[in-house]
Structure prediction request, 130 residues.
Amino acid sequence: MIILSDGTYYEIESEYAIFLQQSFPDVDDVHREFLAMAAWADANPKSRKTRRGMKRFITGWLNKASKEAKGISPLAAKIPKQQAAQNGKISVRDMDMDDELTHDFLGTHQEHFLNKFGRCFTKAGERITR
Prediction:
């Protein structure tokens, strides 16, 4: 989820994430880029995008990432590629569709996901269910 200019969040649906990964094959990991986008939006409140402009922002970001030498933006490169599969943690590559829907990228929406979906995939890589 990426915070918007009005303080609400843009949820990236699984089908859209898959479409983007297929559309930008030179991008190393679209999920890492989503985390980077969410972190950037959180750190830059005056530059946050509107719901209407979010798809343009996402495709522009991924287009720039695809042109980088290793297919990853500088901000996303700072995010670990895979989380260790220990202590109940699941790597991003091993997430299922429900995990992708409920992935709490910022670590601040656990209650929202638990109430809406009965499940949450935490920032730390743990799957929590009610």
